[in-house]
Amino acid sequence: MSVTSNLTISKSLFELTPDMELFYFGIIVFVFSIFNAPILALIITTLKMKNAQSPNMAFLLMNIINFCLLGQGLGHLITFPCLMFPNLLRTFETVVRIIGGIMNTLWICDLSTVTLLAVSRVLTFSNIISIRKSDRIIRYLLILLLSWIFILLIYSVVFRNMMMYPPLWAYDFDVPFCHLFDTMELSLSFPCIIISFLSYLTIAYLIFVAKNLKSSVASRRNEIAILFQSSLVTGYISVMIFVWHPALFTTFQFIDMNDITNQAILNFMWLVHCYVNPCMLLVFNKSIREDCFRLLRTGKIDQPPRAAGTSIVTMS
Protein backbone atom coordinates (compact mmCIF):
# COMPACT_ATOMS: atom_id res chain seq x y z
CA MET A 1 0.00 0.00 0.00
CA SER A 2 2.83 2.38 0.82
CA VAL A 3 4.48 1.59 -2.52
CA THR A 4 1.27 2.42 -4.38
CA SER A 5 0.90 5.61 -2.37
CA ASN A 6 4.47 6.65 -3.16
CA LEU A 7 3.92 5.96 -6.85
CA THR A 8 0.76 8.07 -6.80
CA ILE A 9 2.53 10.94 -5.07
CA SER A 10 5.45 10.71 -7.50
CA LYS A 11 3.10 10.65 -10.47
CA SER A 12 1.16 13.66 -9.22
CA LEU A 13 4.35 15.63 -8.50
CA PHE A 14 5.65 15.13 -12.02
CA GLU A 15 2.39 15.70 -13.83
CA LEU A 16 3.16 17.91 -16.82
CA THR A 17 1.65 21.35 -17.09
CA PRO A 18 -1.19 21.58 -19.63
CA ASP A 19 0.33 24.86 -20.83
CA MET A 20 2.85 23.72 -23.43
CA GLU A 21 4.30 27.22 -23.68
CA LEU A 22 5.40 26.96 -20.05
CA PHE A 23 6.74 23.47 -20.71
CA TYR A 24 8.93 24.63 -23.59
CA PHE A 25 10.06 27.65 -21.62
CA GLY A 26 11.11 25.32 -18.80
CA ILE A 27 13.28 23.38 -21.25
CA ILE A 28 14.86 26.62 -22.49
CA VAL A 29 15.63 27.74 -18.94
CA PHE A 30 17.22 24.38 -18.18
CA VAL A 31 19.39 24.37 -21.32
CA PHE A 32 20.61 27.91 -20.78
CA SER A 33 21.18 27.61 -17.04
CA ILE A 34 23.37 24.48 -17.02
CA PHE A 35 26.38 26.29 -18.49
CA ASN A 36 26.32 29.18 -16.05
CA ALA A 37 27.98 27.47 -13.07
CA PRO A 38 30.99 25.98 -14.95
CA ILE A 39 31.78 29.29 -16.68
CA LEU A 40 31.52 31.34 -13.51
CA ALA A 41 33.41 28.76 -11.43
CA LEU A 42 36.32 29.03 -13.87
CA ILE A 43 36.31 32.84 -13.80
CA ILE A 44 35.93 33.01 -10.01
CA THR A 45 38.85 30.61 -9.55
CA THR A 46 41.00 32.57 -11.99
CA LEU A 47 40.28 35.92 -10.34
CA LYS A 48 40.90 34.42 -6.91
CA MET A 49 44.32 33.19 -8.03
CA LYS A 50 45.13 36.53 -9.67
CA ASN A 51 44.14 38.35 -6.49
CA ALA A 52 46.36 36.02 -4.45
CA GLN A 53 49.31 36.86 -6.70
CA SER A 54 48.64 40.59 -6.91
CA PRO A 55 46.01 41.81 -4.39
CA ASN A 56 43.55 44.19 -6.01
CA MET A 57 40.20 45.45 -4.76
CA ALA A 58 38.82 45.24 -8.31
CA PHE A 59 39.37 41.47 -8.35
CA LEU A 60 37.48 41.13 -5.06
CA LEU A 61 34.54 43.21 -6.30
CA MET A 62 34.44 41.32 -9.59
CA ASN A 63 34.32 38.01 -7.75
CA ILE A 64 31.50 39.23 -5.50
CA ILE A 65 29.57 40.08 -8.66
CA ASN A 66 30.39 36.69 -10.16
CA PHE A 67 29.34 34.91 -6.98
CA CYS A 68 26.00 36.74 -7.06
CA LEU A 69 25.52 35.76 -10.70
CA LEU A 70 26.40 32.16 -9.86
CA GLY A 71 23.77 32.08 -7.12
CA GLN A 72 21.13 33.56 -9.41
CA GLY A 73 21.97 31.09 -12.17
CA LEU A 74 21.78 28.14 -9.78
CA GLY A 75 18.43 29.42 -8.55
CA HIS A 76 17.08 29.33 -12.10
CA LEU A 77 18.53 25.85 -12.60
CA ILE A 78 17.03 24.46 -9.39
CA THR A 79 13.57 25.93 -9.91
CA PHE A 80 13.11 25.32 -13.65
CA PRO A 81 11.15 22.05 -13.04
CA CYS A 82 8.40 24.15 -11.41
CA LEU A 83 7.66 25.60 -14.84
CA MET A 84 7.09 22.13 -16.28
CA PHE A 85 5.56 20.40 -13.25
CA PRO A 86 3.24 22.80 -11.39
CA ASN A 87 2.61 20.33 -8.56
CA LEU A 88 6.26 20.65 -7.58
CA LEU A 89 5.68 24.36 -7.03
CA ARG A 90 2.62 23.70 -4.90
CA THR A 91 4.32 20.99 -2.85
CA PHE A 92 7.62 22.78 -2.28
CA GLU A 93 6.33 26.34 -2.27
CA THR A 94 8.25 27.27 0.88
CA VAL A 95 11.55 26.07 -0.59
CA VAL A 96 10.85 27.87 -3.87
CA ARG A 97 10.06 31.07 -2.00
CA ILE A 98 13.33 30.86 -0.06
CA ILE A 99 15.30 30.29 -3.27
CA GLY A 100 13.50 33.21 -4.89
CA GLY A 101 14.30 35.46 -1.95
CA ILE A 102 17.97 34.50 -2.10
CA MET A 103 18.07 35.10 -5.86
CA ASN A 104 16.50 38.53 -5.47
CA THR A 105 18.93 39.43 -2.68
CA LEU A 106 21.86 38.37 -4.85
CA TRP A 107 20.47 40.49 -7.69
CA ILE A 108 20.43 43.56 -5.44
CA CYS A 109 23.96 42.79 -4.21
CA ASP A 110 25.06 42.27 -7.82
CA LEU A 111 23.67 45.62 -8.94
CA SER A 112 25.13 47.50 -5.97
CA THR A 113 28.56 45.93 -6.38
CA VAL A 114 28.61 46.78 -10.09
CA THR A 115 28.13 50.41 -9.06
CA LEU A 116 30.81 50.16 -6.38
CA LEU A 117 33.21 48.71 -8.95
CA ALA A 118 32.42 51.59 -11.30
CA VAL A 119 33.20 54.12 -8.56
CA SER A 120 36.40 52.25 -7.71
CA ARG A 121 37.51 52.33 -11.32
CA VAL A 122 36.82 56.01 -11.86
CA LEU A 123 38.79 56.87 -8.72
CA THR A 124 41.69 54.80 -9.98
CA PHE A 125 41.50 56.03 -13.57
CA SER A 126 41.36 59.68 -12.51
CA ASN A 127 44.49 59.38 -10.34
CA ILE A 128 42.77 61.55 -7.74
CA ILE A 129 43.81 59.24 -4.94
CA SER A 130 46.22 56.35 -4.72
CA ILE A 131 45.15 52.77 -5.32
CA ARG A 132 45.70 51.80 -1.69
CA LYS A 133 43.67 54.71 -0.37
CA SER A 134 40.97 53.95 -2.94
CA ASP A 135 40.92 50.37 -1.68
CA ARG A 136 40.31 51.55 1.88
CA ILE A 137 37.44 53.80 0.86
CA ILE A 138 35.83 51.11 -1.28
CA ARG A 139 36.35 48.55 1.47
CA TYR A 140 34.38 50.68 3.94
CA LEU A 141 31.57 51.10 1.42
CA LEU A 142 31.65 47.37 0.70
CA ILE A 143 31.26 46.55 4.40
CA LEU A 144 28.21 48.83 4.59
CA LEU A 145 26.75 47.25 1.46
CA LEU A 146 27.26 43.67 2.64
CA SER A 147 25.75 44.53 6.03
CA TRP A 148 22.60 45.74 4.29
CA ILE A 149 22.56 42.69 2.01
CA PHE A 150 22.81 40.42 5.06
CA ILE A 151 19.76 42.09 6.62
CA LEU A 152 17.88 41.78 3.33
CA LEU A 153 18.85 38.11 3.04
CA ILE A 154 17.56 37.33 6.54
CA TYR A 155 14.29 39.11 5.76
CA SER A 156 13.89 37.26 2.44
CA VAL A 157 14.48 33.86 4.02
CA VAL A 158 12.31 34.45 7.10
CA PHE A 159 9.37 36.15 5.38
CA ARG A 160 9.78 34.46 1.96
CA ASN A 161 8.68 37.54 0.05
CA MET A 162 9.49 36.25 -3.46
CA MET A 163 7.21 33.83 -5.27
CA MET A 164 7.22 32.20 -8.67
CA TYR A 165 4.09 32.95 -10.65
CA PRO A 166 5.02 30.85 -13.69
CA PRO A 167 6.84 31.87 -15.71
CA LEU A 168 7.71 35.00 -13.71
CA TRP A 169 9.23 35.77 -10.33
CA ALA A 170 7.58 38.58 -8.40
CA TYR A 171 7.14 40.01 -4.93
CA ASP A 172 4.31 38.61 -2.82
CA PHE A 173 2.81 41.80 -1.45
CA ASP A 174 0.77 39.87 1.11
CA VAL A 175 4.04 39.35 3.00
CA PRO A 176 4.71 41.90 5.77
CA PHE A 177 6.90 44.86 4.77
CA CYS A 178 7.09 43.66 1.16
CA HIS A 179 5.91 47.02 -0.21
CA LEU A 180 8.63 48.73 1.79
CA PHE A 181 11.39 46.49 0.46
CA ASP A 182 10.06 46.78 -3.10
CA THR A 183 10.20 50.57 -2.83
CA MET A 184 13.68 50.39 -1.36
CA GLU A 185 14.85 48.18 -4.24
CA LEU A 186 13.54 50.67 -6.79
CA SER A 187 15.07 53.55 -4.84
CA LEU A 188 18.41 51.75 -4.97
CA SER A 189 18.27 50.56 -8.58
CA PHE A 190 17.98 53.88 -10.39
CA PRO A 191 20.70 55.73 -8.44
CA CYS A 192 23.00 52.75 -9.00
CA ILE A 193 22.43 52.90 -12.74
CA ILE A 194 22.97 56.67 -12.85
CA ILE A 195 26.16 56.50 -10.77
CA SER A 196 27.53 53.67 -12.93
CA PHE A 197 26.86 55.54 -16.17
CA LEU A 198 28.35 58.76 -14.81
CA SER A 199 31.44 56.86 -13.68
CA TYR A 200 32.03 55.32 -17.08
CA LEU A 201 31.30 58.60 -18.86
CA THR A 202 34.02 60.11 -16.68
CA ILE A 203 36.39 57.31 -17.64
CA ALA A 204 35.53 57.85 -21.32
CA TYR A 205 36.30 61.55 -20.92
CA LEU A 206 39.65 60.76 -19.30
CA ILE A 207 40.59 58.31 -22.06
CA PHE A 208 39.36 60.10 -25.18
CA VAL A 209 39.24 63.80 -24.25
CA ALA A 210 41.57 64.63 -21.40
CA LYS A 211 44.09 61.93 -22.39
CA ASN A 212 45.89 62.47 -19.14
CA LEU A 213 46.22 58.85 -18.07
CA LYS A 214 49.84 57.92 -17.50
CA SER A 215 49.79 54.58 -19.22
CA SER A 216 51.38 52.75 -22.11
CA VAL A 217 49.69 51.97 -25.42
CA ALA A 218 48.95 48.43 -24.23
CA SER A 219 47.47 49.77 -21.01
CA ARG A 220 45.32 52.23 -22.93
CA ARG A 221 43.90 49.37 -24.99
CA ASN A 222 43.03 47.63 -21.73
CA GLU A 223 41.43 50.82 -20.44
CA ILE A 224 39.23 51.08 -23.52
CA ALA A 225 38.34 47.38 -23.27
CA ILE A 226 37.32 47.84 -19.63
CA LEU A 227 35.18 50.81 -20.64
CA PHE A 228 33.34 48.86 -23.35
CA GLN A 229 32.89 45.79 -21.16
CA SER A 230 31.50 47.72 -18.21
CA SER A 231 29.32 49.99 -20.32
CA LEU A 232 27.67 47.03 -22.06
CA VAL A 233 27.02 45.28 -18.74
CA THR A 234 25.57 48.45 -17.20
CA GLY A 235 23.49 49.06 -20.33
CA TYR A 236 21.98 45.58 -20.21
CA ILE A 237 21.13 45.95 -16.52
CA SER A 238 19.45 49.28 -17.30
CA VAL A 239 17.31 47.71 -20.02
CA MET A 240 16.36 44.87 -17.71
CA ILE A 241 15.28 47.24 -14.93
CA PHE A 242 13.37 49.33 -17.45
CA VAL A 243 11.47 46.34 -18.84
CA TRP A 244 10.89 44.84 -15.38
CA HIS A 245 9.07 47.96 -14.17
CA PRO A 246 6.91 49.12 -17.11
CA ALA A 247 4.38 50.71 -14.76
CA LEU A 248 6.96 53.38 -13.92
CA PHE A 249 7.26 54.41 -17.56
CA THR A 250 3.78 55.33 -18.76
CA THR A 251 5.08 56.18 -22.23
CA PHE A 252 5.82 52.51 -22.86
CA GLN A 253 2.57 50.90 -21.79
CA PHE A 254 2.58 48.81 -24.98
CA ILE A 255 4.53 46.14 -23.04
CA ASP A 256 1.72 43.86 -21.87
CA MET A 257 3.04 42.18 -18.74
CA ASN A 258 -0.13 40.11 -18.45
CA ASP A 259 0.96 38.17 -21.52
CA ILE A 260 2.62 34.85 -20.65
CA THR A 261 5.13 35.15 -23.49
CA ASN A 262 6.25 38.59 -22.34
CA GLN A 263 6.59 37.30 -18.78
CA ALA A 264 8.70 34.39 -20.02
CA ILE A 265 10.93 36.74 -22.02
CA LEU A 266 11.40 38.94 -18.97
CA ASN A 267 12.39 36.00 -16.79
CA PHE A 268 14.73 34.82 -19.56
CA MET A 269 16.37 38.26 -19.54
CA TRP A 270 17.19 37.69 -15.87
CA LEU A 271 18.81 34.36 -16.77
CA VAL A 272 20.76 35.92 -19.64
CA HIS A 273 21.97 38.58 -17.21
CA CYS A 274 23.87 35.83 -15.40
CA TYR A 275 25.95 35.38 -18.58
CA VAL A 276 26.43 38.97 -19.71
CA ASN A 277 29.11 40.00 -17.23
CA PRO A 278 31.28 36.84 -17.46
CA CYS A 279 31.03 36.76 -21.25
CA MET A 280 31.94 40.43 -21.58
CA LEU A 281 34.81 39.84 -19.17
CA LEU A 282 36.20 37.04 -21.32
CA VAL A 283 35.65 38.93 -24.58
CA PHE A 284 37.19 42.25 -23.57
CA ASN A 285 39.79 41.29 -20.97
CA LYS A 286 42.63 39.47 -22.71
CA SER A 287 44.60 38.89 -19.51
CA ILE A 288 41.74 37.17 -17.70
CA ARG A 289 40.74 35.25 -20.83
CA GLU A 290 44.26 33.87 -21.30
CA ASP A 291 44.54 33.02 -17.61
CA CYS A 292 41.23 31.12 -17.76
CA PHE A 293 42.42 29.04 -20.72
CA ARG A 294 45.79 28.51 -19.04
CA LEU A 295 44.04 27.37 -15.86
CA LEU A 296 42.05 24.82 -17.85
CA ARG A 297 45.20 23.48 -19.50
CA THR A 298 47.70 23.53 -16.64
CA GLY A 299 45.72 24.10 -13.46
CA LYS A 300 47.56 27.35 -12.72
CA ILE A 301 48.10 30.86 -14.07
CA ASP A 302 51.29 32.71 -14.87
CA GLN A 303 52.99 34.90 -12.31
CA PRO A 304 52.31 38.59 -12.96
CA PRO A 305 55.20 40.83 -14.03
CA ARG A 306 56.99 42.60 -11.19
CA ALA A 307 55.89 46.01 -12.43
CA ALA A 308 52.21 45.10 -12.19
CA GLY A 309 52.06 46.04 -8.53
CA THR A 310 53.05 49.61 -9.33
CA SER A 311 50.73 50.12 -12.28
CA ILE A 312 48.50 53.16 -12.01
CA VAL A 313 45.55 51.57 -13.79
CA THR A 314 44.14 48.23 -12.68
CA MET A 315 43.87 45.76 -15.52
CA SER A 316 40.60 44.23 -14.45
From TrEMBL:
SUPFAM superfamilies: Family A G protein-coupled receptor-like (SSF81321). The keyword Transmembrane applies. The keyword Transmembrane helix applies. Keywords: Membrane, Transmembrane, Transmembrane helix. The chain crosses the membrane at residues 22-45, 57-78, 98-119, 140-159, 188-210, 222-244, 264-284. Signal peptide: none annotated. InterPro entries: 7TM_GPCR_serpentine_rcpt_Srt (IPR019425). This is Uncharacterized protein. The lineage of its organism: Eukaryota, Metazoa, Ecdysozoa, Nematoda, Chromadorea.
